[in-house]
Amino acid sequence: MKRRTFLGGAMAVAVLGQGSSASAQQPPIKIGMSMPQTGGLAGGGKASLLGIEIWRDDINAKGGLLGRKVELVVYDDKSSASETPAIYAKLVDVDKVDLLFAPYATVPTAPIMPFVKQRGLLLMGNFSFQVNSKVGHDMWFNNAPWGPADSWAASFLDLAQKAGGKNMALLTADQEFAQNLALTARDVAKKRNLPVVFDQVYPPNTVEFSSIIRALKAAKPDIVYVASYPPDSAGILRAVNEIGIGDDVKIFGGGMVGLQFAAVMSNLGSLLNGVVNYNTWLPEKSMYFDGTKEFFDKYTKRAVEAKVDPLGYYLAPFGYAMGQMIEAAVNSTKSLDQKGIAKYLRENEHKTIVGPIAFSADGERKETATLQAQFRGVKDKDIEQFRSSGKQVILFPEKLKTGDLISPFEAARK
Amino acid sequence: MMKHRNSIVFWAGAAVFLIAVLSMTQIVRNEYPFFAGYVILQFIALAVAWSILGGYAGYVNFGTNAFFGVGVYTAVALFKATGAPLVVQIAAAAVVGMTLGFGVGLLTLRMRGIFFSIATIALAIIIETFVMNWRFVGGAAGIQIQRPPVMAPFDSYVKMLFFVQALLVVIAVSIARYIQNSRIGRGLQALRDDELAAECTGVPTLKLKLVACMISGALISAAGAPAAMYLQYADPSSAFNLSYSVSALAMALIGGTAHWIGPVLGAILLGSTQQLLAVTISSEVNVLVLGIMLVLFVVGAPKGIIGLLRPRYRLRAGGKP
Amino acid sequence: MDLLLGAVVLGVLLGCFYAAVSVGLSVSFGLLDVPHVAHPAFLVLASYGVYQLNESYDIDPLLAGLAITPLFFLFGLLAYRVYYETFERRGSDAAVRGIAFFFGIAFIIEVLIILQFGVDQRSVSATYIGKSWRFGEFRIPIRQLVAFAVALALTLLLAVYLSKTFMGRAIRAVAQDEEALRLMGANPVRIKQFAFGIATAVLGIAGALLIIVAPVEPTLDRAYIGRTFCVVVMAGLGSISGTLIAAIILGVAESIVLTLFGASWAPAISFAMLLGVLAVRPQGLLGR
User: Fold this and answer.
1) C224: in domain
2) Which of B79, B138, B291, C11 lies at a C-alpha separation of 20 to 30 Å from B192?
3) What is the domain count for chain C?
4) Does B282 score more than 70 pLDDT?
5) C183 pLDDT band (50/70/90 cuts)?
6) Domains along chain A?
7) Are C123 and A205 inside 8 Å of each other by CB?
């Protein structure tokens, strides 16, 4: 686990120690969080953290919050649910942090939801999926663009049905996030009387997807909805390329985690073409807001030395946006009162580098801003190509759209 | 005579420990020590329970995670179905763990050494797959749990769990100590040194192995059961995490398995080292430390910490507490 | 019917790949009785070595695998020497502490890989990755065929080596009766060390296959502990041909379950098979 402080461990202690003498400086505002830095979620966790760190440096360069420097207190949760309760108890009771950010992803976040609710603490969510639906904490705000639970499946199926899809195949990983997506997909399909002709759940650590893809192909679906994890996403796309998926398929993809990460994308290269998959931020012209470009300039430089995702589109800007929302709330309410901050966050629309954000009562986005984008003209072995627009054309949401779906899937792959 | 006095010292120590824990929950207001302490106590219980089979009998159980996960999910299923209180959850987990232990004990009929270990890995994967496909407890998606209100005299649920886990540690340790000093312990040690010879000299090896498996399994599952309420969340990949198996084994071996105090010391050392490292050095290094400690101890201190402290255990395992 | 046939074919290919990643363990654990739980960690390390050569010098992954085998041979010699000096020589509960020792080694390797390469998954490029061989409607991934062919060659080569050459026979002999060998004037420790070197060297090629078949990440070894030991035990310790047969059975079973039944039950099926074999025939299918 790692504790990162404003100026690095030793320096920060020195600053704290001489707090009173150094030009009447007030103690820093501490923001505490755990972040997966080892284990399965580490790749995402490190990128997310870098985004938050860039925000911290920006705000401190501007003189801090309420005239106080901002300091991050970060521990590693090893991507596991069993580590976070103790970490957050420490953050609150020992480190006495002023504000809490959630770790990246649902599994490490789930165990701390009851804790923050019981203590009445504000928690800024970081890409969890429907983690508050059963807890009902009114001081939870998720930075992720997911929106209402069923909007994800609904947007993909809208595109699919418009392209003439009449039945669906569902291929999902037997893991938490993918199964939640699968549940909503089955619901939406049922509501629309869309027959599900293939519904397979594959286990974690599956080595070879050729056999599954053959079975899927044999079911002759029009729509293929896939919810998978990084190691599998690559395996599935390879198998699709090798085994083929049939000419009936109008649209393929939907919920494949991993196709947002630079290492995976450059590995797969041209295999990505045609796939329609979710995303959160892409270098398309509709996605640039105030400060977005400056953020990525900084990120690109720092990602190299931090050995994190060189593109950082998926998580990092949302980490920054999380900071921006706190910044706006604290500056407007002129205090660190968590109830006041929560009220402000709930009642206003917030300008961030990932666009305007407004929350509904459950702390999720009012409207979904989850992108569905189609890969086009991707070449092999080239990370830099993903920095230019047109490689991932945004099909949804309407407001951010930069192109139309090319269908069927086989035609879009060329 | 000596033995009798030792017993008094042991029970007095256990009582003092529990009273200290109880008064700590009443006095200390900061909740963090209870969160961290719960984790360490849980590892003590696991390491002690593991070494009943792994240490005394020499059957290396790699399936600690299976028993742990079974404990967690027994608690989850029971709580979801009937809203049973914590005590019932733990008791039920112990019963299910014991049944599973009986099954594992039957495996020892035909398997020895590493074959047995591999069979327990296989068992863990089979049970995890079963839970992943069991929709009632959330399947692979996991399940969030709402804790019931806390009972007096505790003012927070975590403090109560801390006390409950301390109680489980005392139970585990006293059972381990009893076994170590009784005929069961001597029998297990005989079959550990040479199973065939033990059998020939009339040691009821099968019965002993079954007993050891059942007790060890019941204790591991019982120690796992409160984790459902501690996390207020359960998912198969966390509950059946391989790290429970490795930690239990590592802690017992680092402490030494010849005496019940070994796993206790090992768990305290390794558990608190990891908590300490959490706030000082970077994350990868934390995993590295576990690896290096394991290697150093098994290479440099074959009998664990107790072997370093009391050289006589090198010659004579077991004996007096 | 067509689906079933396809599943069997793909399962055989997958099985041969499993044989390739397990065959080293069949020597180190099966013949030498070393509880080598770090075997999969060595395997992943080899994959990263192959990745490094492929990435920086654009060397074909299989050639890269071949290139690192001498290094892995030396690495194996060293690893066995350490293991022997600290455990086997002292006797008694070497197995229990040996397991802990190799777990420790596996953790250390994982962390070193993370520190060097980061946590992202890595894969290699080669002309045969991503293409398929068509046979009417039926298509087989070429990387699978490559893995199949190399795995088959590797396993057969090792089987021949162990049964026909002088050193190979010595290795078999040391597994059966160390004392007899000692009486004949040979040094069993030297022979075992050499055998362990061979078992580790084989991982160079196996690591190349691992990264050809699918991308690797630093903690991938944990997924392979169960699979490799499953194959070796099911085969019967030390039987190389048994390893191939057991691996193919595992591959076909997995493939059929994935294609035709609930895919999510696949791990339970293969490990239930292992338990079944252990319970009915503890010495494995072709045990010694």
Assistant:
1) yes
2) B291
3) 1
4) no
5) confident
6) 9-147+288-347 (3.40.50.2300), 151-285+370-412 (3.40.50.2300)
7) no
Nearest by CB: B233 against A75, A90, A110: A110
**ipTM of model:** 0.85
Structural domain boundaries enclosing C67 = 2-119+126-280
> The domain spanning residue C252 has which CATH number?
1.10.3470
Q: What's the confidence (pLDDT) of residue A400?
A: 93
Question: Is C240 within the bounds of a domain?
Answer: yes
Which residue out of C54, C139, C148, C213 would a mutagenesis test of the A interface target, given it has the greatest number of A Cβ atoms within 10 Å? Answer: C139
Query: Which residue of C44, C112, C120, C225 is the best one to mutate when testing the A interface, meaning the one whose CB has the most A CBs within 10 A?
Result: C120
- Asked if residue C238 is part of any domain, the answer here is yes
Secondary structure of chain A as H, E, C letters: CCCCCCCCHHHHHHHHHCCCCCCCCCCCEEEEEEECCCCCCHHHHHHHHHHHHHHHHHHHHCCCECCECEEEEEEECCCCCCCHHHHHHHHHHCCCCCEEEEEECHHHHHHHHHHHHHHCCCEEEECCCCCCCCCCCCCEEECCCCCCCCHHHHHHHHHHHHCCCCCEEEEEECCHHHHHHHHHHHHHHHHCCCCEEEEEEECCCCCCCHHHHHHHHHCCCCEEEEEECHHHHHHHHHHHHHHCCCCCCCEEEEEECCCCCHHHHHHHHHHHCCCEEEECCCCCHHHCCCCHHHHHHHHHHHHHHHCCCCCCCCCHHHHHHHHHHHHHHHHHHCCCCHHHHHHHHHHCCECCCCCCECECCCCCECCCCCEEEEECCCCCCCCHHHHCCCCEEEEECHHHCCCCCCCCHHHHCC
What digits encode the pLDDT tens for the residues A347-383? 999 999 999 999 999 999 999 999 999 999 999 888 8
Average pLDDT over residues C126-149: 81
Q: What pLDDT, in 10s, does the model give residues B4-15?
A: 778 899 999 999
The predicted pLDDT at position B11 comes to 93
CB atoms A2 and B281 under 8 Å = yes
**Helix or strand or coil: residue C141?**
strand
Higher pLDDT, A314 or C219: A314
Condensed to tens digits (0 to 9), the pLDDT of residues A181-212 reads: 898 999 999 999 999 999 988 887 787 888 88
Domain ranges, ordered by start, for chain B = 31-242
Residue A4 confidence (pLDDT): 43
| Distances from the Cα of C235 to the Cα of B109, C41, C282, angstroms | 20, 21, 10
Cβ of B288 and C278 within 8 Å? Answer: no
Q: Does C117 touch chain B (CB under 8 A)?
A: no
Chains A, C: CB pairs < 8 Å: 118
Distance from CA of C6 to the nearest CA of A (A): 7
Contacts of B133 in chain A (CB under 8 A): 174
B291 touches chain C (CB under 8 A): yes
pLDDT of residue B54 exceeding 90:
no
Say whether A1 and B283 touch across the interface (CB within 8 A). yes
Nearest to A2 among B233, B275, B282 (CB): B282
